[in-house]
Design a protein that fits this description.
Length: 286
C-alpha cells in the first residue's frame, strides 16, 4: 500500500511536472514568436524608413522603361511649368534681349587697320611716282624701325604702329647719330614717301599731322590719302636734332552685317509688341 501510494503520489508529481513543462514550453514558444514578430516589425519599419530615405537620395529611378535622373525630371517639370505660364510679353522680352545680345556680339566694334599688317613703302623724288633708289620696301607694321632707303646715303628711319582701335601712326625721323645738327629736305615738287596697305581692310577716312609732331614745316596739306594708302610730301620740311614727324591715320569702323541688322530689327519689333501689350492691358484694366 505504501508503495502504491508512493506510486500514486509519484504519478501526481509527474503530471504536475509535465504540466509545468508544457506551460513553460508554451510560454517559451509564445515569447519566441512575440520576439520574432517584434523583430520583423522593427526590420520592416527600418526597411520602410531606409526605402523612403533612399527614395529621396536615389539619383536615378525607373521611368517609362528608362533610367532618368531625379534632377533632370525636376528640371523638366520646372521648365514645363514655366512654358505653361509664360505669356507673349515674356517671349517678346526674351526676343528683344536675345537680339540685342546677338547684335553686340556679332557687330565688329573695331576697324581692320594697318596694325601688324604687311605694308609697302616707296620714296618718291623729285616728283610723285619717281621711285627713289632702294624702294619699294616691304615691312610689317608692328612698331619696328625700318630704313627709308638702301641708297648710299644716311637714310631716315620710319615705323608704323597702332595707337587705337581704328588708328595707326607713322613716325619718320633722321637719327641724331647720323644727323647731330638735324636735317632739312630740299624743295622739289615731291620729296617724300607713300605707304600702302593690302586690300580688304577698312578704308582710310582721315590722315593728319599729330599734335606731338615736332618737325618744322609739315602740315596737313602735305598729306594725301586714298582708301588704302597715304602719301607725305616732306619737301622743305626741317627736322631739328632728335625730332620726328608724326602722322596719324584713321580707318572707318566696320559696318554690321545684314543678318545682324535683321536680328536687331526683330528685337525692336518684339519690344514694340511688348509695349503694345502693356498698353492694351492698362486700357482693359481701366
Amino acid at each position: 500500500m505504501g508503495f502504491a501510494k508512493r506510486a500514486k503520489g509519484g504519478s501526481g508529481q509527474g503530471k504536475l511536472r509535465s504540466a509545468n513543462s508544457s506551460c513553460s514550453l508554451a510560454s517559451l514558444l509564445a515569447a519566441r514568436k512575440a520576439m520574432l514578430l517584434s523583430r520583423r516589425a522593427i526590420d520592416r519599419n527600418s526597411i520602410d524608413k531606409n526605402t523612403a530615405h533612399l527614395a529621396d537620395l536615389e539619383p536615378t529611378r525607373l521611368n517609362g522603361g528608362r533610367m532618368r535622373t531625379g534632377f533632370l525630371d525636376d528640371v523638366r517639370i520646372f521648365a514645363t511649368k514655366i512654358l505653361t505660364v509664360a505669356s507673349l510679353k515674356h517671349a517678346a522680352t526674351t526676343l528683344f534681349i536675345s537680339a540685342m545680345l546677338v547684335n553686340v556680339s556679332a557687330s565688329p566694334s573695331t576697324a581692320s587697320t594697318w596694325d601688324n599688317q604687311t605694308l609697302t613703302f616707296n620714296y618718291y623724288f623729285p616728283n610723285y611716282g619717281n621711285v627713289f633708289p632702294g624702294s619699294p620696301i616691304t615691312f610689317v607694321a608692328d612698331g619696328s624701325l625700318h630704313l627709308s632707303t638702301f641708297a648710299n646715303l644716311f637714310p631716315a628711319t620710319f615705323s608704323v604702329v597702332g595707337i587705337g582701335p581704328d588708328e595707326v601712326q607713322i613716325s619718320y625721323d633722321y637719327p641724331i647719330a647720323n644727323y647731330p645738327n638735324g636735317a632739312g629736305l630740299g624743295v622739289f615738287p615731291f620729296n617724300g614717301f607713300n605707304i600702302s596697305g593690302p586690300n580688304g581692310l577698312s578704308p582710310i577716312i582721315s590722315a593728319f599731322v599729330d599734335s606731338n609732331s615736332n618737325v618744322t614745316g609739315l602740315t596737313d596739306s602735305d598729306i594725301g590719302f586714298t582708301a588704302n594708302s597715304v602719301s607725305v610730301n616732306l619737301a622743305g620740311v626741317v627736322f631739328p636734332p632728335g625730332s620726328a614727324g608724326l602722322i596719324d591715320i584713321q580707318f572707318a569702323r566696320a559696318v554690321p552685317e545684314p543678318s545682324t541688322w535683321a536680328m536687331m530689327m526683330l528685337g525692336f519689333c518684339g519690344f514694340g509688341f511688348l509695349l503694345h501689350r502693356r498698353r492694351s492691358s492698362a486700357l482693359g484694366a481701366a
